[in-house]
Amino acid sequence: MSFPSLKQRIALEVNRSFIKEEAMSHPLMQLFWECTLRCNMRCRHCGSDCKISTVHPDMPFADFEKVLLRIKEKYDSRKILIILSGGEPLMRDDIVSCGRRIYELEFPWGLVSNGRLMSPAKIDGLLHAGMRSATISLDGLEDDHNWMRGIPDAFSHASAAIERLAKEPSIAFDVVTCINRRNFQKLNELKEYLISLGLKRWRIFTVFPAGRAATDPELQISDGQYKQLMDFIVSTRKEGRIHLSYGCEGFLGPYEGKVRDHLFSCQAGLTIASVRIDGAVSGCTSIRSRFDQGNIYTDDFIDVWENRFGTFRDHGQFHTDECAECKWWKWCLGNGMHLRDDSGRLLLCNLKRLT
What we know:
35% of the residues lie in helices and 14% in strands. The chain has helices at 6-25, 61-74, 95-104, 120-128, 142-149, 154-165, 187-196, 223-239, 301-307, 310-313, 321-324, 329-332, 350-353; strands at 30-34, 81-85, 109-113, 131-137, 172-179, 201-206, 243-246, 272-275, 280-282, 294-295. Helix 8 (223-239) links the parallel strand 6 and strand 7 (243-246). The longest helix is centred in the first third of the chain and has 20 residues, at 6-25. The chain starts with 5 loop residues before the first helix and ends with a helix.
């Protein structure tokens, strides 16, 4: 494994100091609200950590509003982005009124959607309710996306939503793509298609082998393909025709500083929190329930945020096994929290895939 150059080492050290400072001050900057588990698709990669039945009722907005009011007592709401997630958040009939109330409380807000219910009228309603960011999922060209999403018209709806939102100057908008063995060979075609829709920002990620994904080989790219993916991101960023970045899927060693706009850090519990459908408070909705820090129905959210999250802010307990001997440890800190199982064991080290 190549060790970082002097230039990269300096950048990593600066980033390391910044992460330490964030862990101490932990300014809340993003709060995910898992507002529903209902969905109108049957995605192959969904449900890697399903701990609650999908028939669990939507959280009443009034319950989440209490959290927002409590946060507003303590922090500047204008600096905290609320992200509505699911399931599919647009399955809620009251999603526009929820957004409007969040906006009235002076929180910027956005959502993550599969795009199937993103009609022009719905988009207009969301924008009028103060929506400031949006992410739509598109997992390949038509056949590949529909295969991934399990719905025959998924691609057409997502494409229409992307084309409309890409023209909206008032919001931060991007598309996220899950890379798998089916769509890997068509990345250039997909890139050209997204550019043709007017998209400016594109984000891609890979699925880690847990739950349903662990037994579906078509979802997992090989180590060789993973390195090719990193090289594709580097070359696309150099082209400058569309702004492409890799998701928060762990530390990338020699590719740090080349495939994202920032160096790696797991922001869960440092600047990012979530309230899940059952009221559980965690770092983000991708992290296993074993790492829940409290619950809005039994605990004060501010107390949980300020005084818990020890595991998130000090990864010392993860400095074991393969991580104990890794010379990248002090910059990686054991990867993202979502890459660990219920016992804390690392499920996947992307750094090893690049060597």
